[in-house]
């Protein structure tokens, strides 16, 4: 359960699972690694979302906020729901196999 | 989420009359399995199973919104698995070490994986250890042509058990094997006569075996079939960026999950050990982070089995995204069945 928004989290998305399989975690332990990964993920996502006019932010290390340029914002929990939420905001599908997207990406770099 | 306190599940699937029950009958005779293995069957066939922990579940699929076939929940299995779990916790004399689920000949295994991986209770008590698909060596070629269910069952399989090999002609057997390898190049093949198999086959492969199977995927065989199933394998020499890769794969599965029949991989992400990745359509098993590499060679291998997607498109997409995100790992080899 997320204590801030009351959302019931039933699933840990596979991208959030780490190699650490110890049963107990001390408060604050590995927070830096976790935060670093989250920031990196947000940066990488934003490079992709730049093409769609969307922006992702990390929120307090627990959620992500996805915004578009018209001021709409949505709270996203993990990568599992990120793409669906982004498609909802854009009203069109996001497909990494889309040749147009790939062409855009390759010209930028 | 470690696997330590979870019970393994083996799924046995295959066409009607391909020898699922005969295989189980023999395997369950082994003393180490007969006492502590729960068995869930969907139908009582002609060949009955004589097992005291046998349960029957009538296939009941709950259609969830979303419309993808793999993301359906099997309510019947949920109930049976929960009651086995209850029995195990209530009665300490009756140990439950493993559950075997025998599906009907027509069942799609993906909803079973989905149920176990996403159910709030089941996901913490069980994990999918191994998926076995039985294929009749004599009628297999015909069944591949006539039943699309079999193709799905073969792509999901970790191990393919060829049954009735004694009555099949030698040429027929080889042809069948080649066809099956087109659909699933990374599966392990086991030949069985009259269900006489080593009981160990119901256990999943260890990481070393897993690596061997993935590494031994030779250049996929050029397929002349019109089933539009193709595979592609990648080999990387440098560590992959796990965050960037996860981003790309989750995006790919979100958009094309229904047609990515299988993802399998052993990935070097710069940690001490590799990550074992295993996915079926939209469902990715919790990636297993291994403590160390099984052998000296540290290469990442990745295999996709695709339906109606050109392998080249996946390859271009992966390369472009990696270059774009600045996380390019040196690509050693790309094999596609084009």
Report helical residue fraction of chain B. 25-40%
N→C terminal distance of chain A:
41 Å
Q: Architecture of the largest domain in chain B, CATH level 2?
A: 3-Layer(aba) Sandwich
What's the helical proportion of residues of chain A?
25-40%
- Poorly predicted runs of chain A are none
Tell me the CATH topology of the largest domain in chain B: Rossmann fold
Q: What is the helix tally of chain B?
A: 11
> What profile does the largest beta sheet of chain B have?
7 strands, parallel
Chains forming the largest contact: A-B, 34 and 38 residues
Number of helices of chain A: 3
Fold and architecture overview:
Chain B: This is Cobalamin biosynthesis protein CobW. Chain B: Pfam families: cobW (PF02492), CobW_C (PF07683). Chain B: It catalyses: GTP + H2O = GDP + phosphate + H(+). Chain B: Belongs to the SIMIBI class G3E GTPase family. ZNG1 subfamily. Chain B: Keywords: Chaperone, Hydrolase, Nucleotide-binding. The complex is a heterodimer of chains A (109) and B (338). Chain A has 109 residues and is α+β, with helices and mostly antiparallel strands. Chain A has one domain. Chain A has three helices and three strands, in the order αβββαα. The termini of chain A are far apart. The mean pLDDT of chain A is 83. By secondary structure, chain B is of the alpha/beta class. Chain B has two domains: 3-205, P-loop containing nucleotide triphosphate hydrolases (Rossmann fold, 3-Layer(aba) Sandwich); 229-336, Hypothetical Protein Yjia, Chain: A,domain 2 (2-Layer Sandwich), CATH 3.30.1220. Helices cover 32% and strands 25% of the residues of chain B. Chain B has eleven helices and 16 strands. The longest helix of chain B has 16 residues, at 75-90. The radius of gyration of chain B is 20 Å and the shape is globular. The relative contact order of chain B is 0.14. The A-B interface holds A 10-15, 17-19, 21, 23, 37, 40-41, 44-45, 47-48, 79-80, 82-84, 93-97, 99, 102, 105-106, 108-109 and B 1-2, 4, 118, 120, 123, 243-244, 246-248, 250-252, 254-256, 271-273, 275, 284-287, 289, 309, 313-314, 316-317, 320-321, 323-327.
